[in-house]
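In response to reviewer comment 3 from the previous cycle, which asked for concrete evidence that the modeling workflow produces usable outputs, we include below a single protein chain processed end to end. The sequence was submitted unchanged, and the resulting structure tokens are shown without manual editing.
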Amino acid sequence: MESEMRTKHRKRILTICIAILLAVSAGIALSACSGGGAQEDSAAAAGGEADAANTASETSDASDAPAEKATSGEITVYTALEDEQVTEYLAVFNAEYPDITVNIVRESTGVITARLLAEKDNAQADAVWGTAASSMMILDDQGMLEAYAPEGVDRILPEFKSDKPVPTWVGIDAWETAFIVNTVELDKLGLAVSDIGSYEDLLRPELKDHIVMSNPNSSGTGFLTVAGVLQLKGKDTEAGWDYLSKLHENVNQYVHSGSKPAKMAAAGECVVGVSFGYAGISQKANGAPVEVVFPVEGSGWDMEANALMKKDSIEPAAKTFLDWAISDAAMDLYKVNYPIIATGGDGNYEGYEIDPVSQLIENDFNWVANNRDDILSKWIEKYDSKSAAE
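The workflow returned the following structure tokens.
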């Protein structure tokens, strides 16, 4: 059965990106977002050449020559990237653009999404960087994103950007569900890593109160895991919720970060942390006694994406930042942490014992986005009693 399942996953490698594109294009009725804000931005950035820049911004596609970049300014960027990633990535950006000040607001995906929605009528962020594409679809549907084609966007696979003539969001990489297992603590329970290979294995009675998982309301990793389970078990059936209820009996707590379960497993604070691949691989690389297990049924997943926020006055430096954020230099940084990058490169598979693309489930992004609110509401009703304090 497992062999048959793995064969099916390998066959999906060539079709999975097409599935995403079809889901996005057939899915949510996304509203077009280009308009006056972009014109004001062009005037600020191009000075006396504002009329030409405005015309180009309204009619150009990704192949047109980009406008002159701003090399100074101050912007606010919301991100769900990990703290250490933000520090590393920004150091490279700051070396290239030392006169652009980037004020970072870093939170979990769910918190960032909720904050952006709350600020809909008074946007505080200039740009969003590395936040779940499923969240971008929601913001786009609310008319909150400004259409913008960053320099080099033609290199980005169609499946990793909105399907508008001028994209409203652009993906950078993808990440997936993984179990981070502390081998020392697991041995104390009389179990081996080979005993933890599937979602069903997490229901073992020995693991009661020894699992930590991300809260899907605050963590993108938590949400993609829950959404992945529901899809694997039959989407609109109760089978997925039945499984999650059984898993809930073994969960010690739900935390508000995608990487924290991996860190807790590495520290011996839990036996299994339901997290994402990179989080566990980095802990193992740092010497923690953990193994990274990808469920044989397949991993739920999402992609991280960037966008320009719709505002009355758009800071030109925000466009410069978004140009850089999909540059080759940025992609080289992303692929160290995530093997699946939006330019279609092979990435860096160090630490992965499998082809991570073959591990991804067929993710119905249309279904996920349309059912997000219902999924989160139902999850809170059933399982929020074990959520950690925020």
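The mean pLDDT is 85. We consider this sufficient to address the reviewer's concern, and the full set will be provided in the supplementary archive.
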